[in-house]
Design brief:
This protein is an alpha/beta fold. It has two domains: 88 residues, Flavocytochrome B2, Chain A, domain 1 (Roll), CATH 3.10.120.10; 43 residues, no CATH class. A hairpin with a 2-residue loop joins strand 3 and strand 4. The longest helix is centred in the middle third of the chain and has 11 residues.
C-alpha cells in the first residue's frame, strides 16, 4: 500500500498547539501529542515549524530514528511533491547558522574541551542550545565537566606495539592468551 500524499496546503492548516503537523524528511507527522506534556519544547521548537517543513531544524538535533519512535498513527503520509511551490519553499527555509570560524582539523583536537569549542563555533544557536543544555540544576552538567576533564586524548606513555606477546603462565601452565573472567558477570 502506497503512503497517502499530503499537500502543502493541508499541512499548513495544522499549525496550532492542539493540531500541529510537521514535515520531516518529506514525511508528514502529527506531533499534537506533545502539546500537554512538552510546553517548553512546543513553544521553542515545534510551534515555530508548525504546518511547515522542519527537516533542517529537526536533523540538527535528532537522529532520523527519533521521530520514527512516534506511534505509526501519527504518520499522516508523504508530502506531495507536486504541491511544493515557491511560497512553501520560502516559508519553510530555515535560517542557516552563521559559521564564525572554520572547523579545526580532527587531529588538532586533543581534549573534550576542544570538541566543545569546535561545536560551539560550528553549530547553529539552536543546536548548540540543545546539546549544551543542562536542565535546571546543573548537577549533571558539573559532574560531567569534572569527569570529562580527566579524559585526555594525548597518550602519556608510548609503548612499541609492533610486536606483542600475549603468552602467560596460569597455574603453572603456559597459555597463548590469558583467560579473562569479568567479575561483573
Amino acid at each position: 500500500m502506497s503512503p497517502r500524499l499530503v499537500s502543502t496546503k493541508e499541512v499548513a492548516r495544522h499549525d496550532s498547539p492542539n493540531d500541529c503537523w510537521l514535515v520531516v524528511d518529506n514525511q508528514v507527522w502529527d506531533v499534537s501529542i506533545f502539546a500537554p506534556d512538552h510546553q517548553v519544547v512546543l513553544r521553542v521548537f515545534i510551534l515555530r515549524y508548525a504546518g511547515r517543513d522542519a527537516t533542517a531544524a529537526y536533523n540538527e538535533v535528532h537522529t532520523p530514528a527519533t521521530i520514527k519512535a512516534l506511534p505509526p498513527t501519527q504518520l499522516m503520509g508523504q508530502l506531495d511533491p507536486s504541491s511544493i511551490d515557491g511560497t512553501w519553499r520560502n516559508k519553510s527555509t530555515p535560517q542557516t547558522p552563521s559559521q564564525t570560524t572554520a572547523k579545526p582539523q580532527l587531529n588538532a583536537i586533543l581534549s573534550t574541551n576542544d570538541f566543545e569549542d569546535a561545536a560551539r563555533d560550528s553549530l547553529s544557536k539552536e543546536a548548540w542550545a540543545f546539546y549544551s543544555s543542562t536542565a535546571t540544576d546543573l548537577i549533571s552538567h558539573n559532574s560531567n565537566q569534572s569527569f570529562y576533564g580527566r579524559i585526555s586524548m594525548r597518550p602519556r606513555l608510548l609503548r612499541n606495539v609492533l610486536t606483542i606477546n600475549t603468552q602467560a603462565t596460569v597455574l603453572g601452565a603456559r597459555v597463548e592468551e590469558p583467560p579473562m573472567a569479568n567479575p561483573r558477570y
